[in-house]
Structures are given as C-alpha cells and as structure tokens.
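Risk register update: the risk of archive-format incompatibility is retired. Evidence:
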Amino acid sequence: MIPLGLGEIAAVVGGTVEGDAAVKVTAPAVLDSRRAEPGGLFVAFAGEHADGHEYAVQAGRAGAVAVLGSRPTPLPTVVVEDAQAALQALAAHVVGRLRDGLTVVGLTGSQGKTGTKDMLEAVLSSAAPTIATIGSLNNELGVPLTMLRADADTRFLVLEMGARHIGDIAGLTGLVAPDIGVVLNVGQAHLGEFGSRAAIARTKGELVRGLAPGGTAVLNADDPRVVAMRALTAGPVLTFGRAEHADVRVLGVDLDRLGRPSCTLRTASARASVALPHVGAHQALNASAAAAAGLAAGVPLGLAATALATASLSQWRMERHVLAGGATLLNDTYNANPDSTRAALDALAAIEGGRRIAVLGEMLELGAGSEAEHRGVGKYAASRADVVAAVGEGARPIADGAGERAVVLADNDAAVDWLRGHLTAGDVVLVKASRGARMDEVTAAMLAQPRSRGSAG
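Archived output:
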C-alpha cells in the first residue's frame, strides 16, 4: 500500500479521525486482526456474531497502527458510517493514484478462477512486480483488500472477481476498470442463486462491459456463451482454448503417470511447450487462458510457458499427497459444482495406481435441479472410479447415480473411519465437495493420522 496519513484517508472516505491524525499507514489493510502487519490498517466490522472493533488492541499488537471502522477504538481510528463503502473508496483512491504505471487484470468464471489466477500471477511476475488476489478473496471485500496491497513498484494487479448475484461484478469493475478482462467459462456454480445459465452469462459479461476504454477481453473460444461476449466490447479480443480458431490454442495434451498435463500452446506467430506441475487435463486450458492474458499484457509466449511450469496453486485445489500407507490423496475440497467435479474425476482416472476412490460431498447452490445434478455426477463418477463414497445426506443422490459402486457415509467422521479401514497401498482417492460441506476436515484427518492398510511404497 502507498503511505497515507489518517487525515488523508479520512478525507478520501468521508470519515473523521479519532486519535492522532498524523499517524501514517504504510502496510496493507486486513480484516483479521491476527494478520495485521507493522504499519498496517485494521478494518473493523460490527457483525452479527462478532464486533471487529473489540479486536483493535490485538491488531495493534500484531503491528496495525490504525483502524477503519464505525466507532472509535483504542487505536487511532477513521470513523465512518459504512466501513465497506469506505474500504472500497480507499481502494479506488489508491489504485487511481497508481494508475499510470499499472496494468489491471480482472478474471472471472464459474470454475477454475483461482487456479488460473495463480498461473497468471506466475506469468506476470516473470516480467514485472505483480500483486494478485490471495486465495479466493474475490468479493466486495476481497477485491479492495487486494487493491490496497498495490504500491509504487507494482506493475500488474490481478483481481479475481466472483459473483453470487447479477450486478456483483459490475460493482467490482466500478472500483477499477480492468485493462484486461479474462472470462473462463459459464457453468453451474451458484445456479440456485442466479436461476439460469443465461443470468450467469450476463453476470460474467459484466467484466467485459466494465473494461477500461481500449481494454482487451480474453475469452474462452470453447464456450459459446463466453465467445458471445465479444459483442459486449469495441476493444480488442483474444481467445484461448482447443478450438481451431483460438488465438492461443491448446494442442496435444498428454498426461504423465501422476496425471500432470503437458501440451503445446500455439499462436499465429509462435508456439511453446508447457509441462504443468498440476494434476488434471483441465489445467492445460487454464494455462492457455493465463498465457493469453499474459500476451495481452505484453509477456511473450515463451516466457509465459517457462513461468507456467513453476506456478503453484492455492490451497485445496487438486493438492496431491502420498499417505504413509502408500495411498495417494487428491485434496480438491475448496469448492465444487458439477463441471469442476467431472474435471476432478477425469484427473482421478488419469493417475496410475490401484483402485480409484471418489469421496464426494454435497454440491451446494444448484437450485431446483440439484438432485438430478448430483445423480448425474454419481453416474459419471462410477465411470471414472472403482468406489464412489457419497458423504452426507445431501450427497445421497450421488450414490443413487453411482449404483453398485456406491458407498453411503453419514458424515465426515464416517468418511475418515471408512478411509482408514479401506485404503491400501497404491489406491488413489479424490476428496471433493462444496466448501460448505467442510470436507477439508476429511483430508486434514487423513494427513494428520494417515493409518491405512499395506506398507508404505
């Protein structure tokens, strides 16, 4: 964050300073008092279950020098009526101050956002200092927090943009109009909230509509709903994907014995081989999106390919672990929808080993078609796995779809007990569900106490 005095912050956000107005904020803003940095700003919200203002002293012990909140605290505080609006106004001000030397990239899609964002961060960082969304902090609070991490040295700012309602992404582009906008796909994530894929497409298209004048749209050539967004902009468009007409085309995807893809990325004037360290053939498409956005930002294809080979993904995205008993665990528990679950099941099937075991929990927010979607995923899982374990009552339709390959487990504890009693050396197990199912508890238990039959191999 660029250094700002509390008086200046108060002027920007329409607040008043309680305490020493000469205090200067020199480090990023945080919502979690435990994560405050020396010189940082703690943003306090009074919520239904907790009041952040009560943690101001803890934030101060961690290094925060000031608070942005709705009432005074023991630390110097900028007091405002609406802390969220103030946070957003401050973020827009900071990025506005940096705009001349900064290229802003916005990225959205129904699935694959965070992994592609991680790849794009690696691509852009290979060329110049880059700030990108941490994890999946992609909403009305996460985006401004990321913006406030930018400083005078930052040349690329990568903002993952999520949405649960029509207008959400338009609100985010209202804070900063991206120079480059990447739309990955229009899928079924949050279908229950949106009501239709058409509504999802309209929302994702808000990123293209919200581009800065002359900004470049980077669109998935394989998704008709995304390609149609070309009509939403008069600016340049780059496409990526397997389609023959894609500007950055994915060719020759091969998987090694651990399910990691290698491919060729080809443009009209160049081609580059890419070997990805991540599990799943779908990662090749994400890599092409990152490479296309890199080209739009001026990063040559060859440099992007080199960076992609070393990119690391955020937590709980197809993490591969070898358990003490010799089984392989794929932790893909951050979130799930039917499309992403099928991609994960394809990755499971591609890994060499013994039995393939899919441990699947409920996929949330699918609306009226939820039961049918779960049943369909179960049927697909039975074609990719030897055993399909459906965890929790909400996942029972998965077992119905999987038929004779299904095992029904009551909850996460039951899943842990079943795995400990049934895994053998060489087995490959995928654990995946929506975040609300908290199936990271299953993987954490297996990694902490990985008792399984067979000897380590």
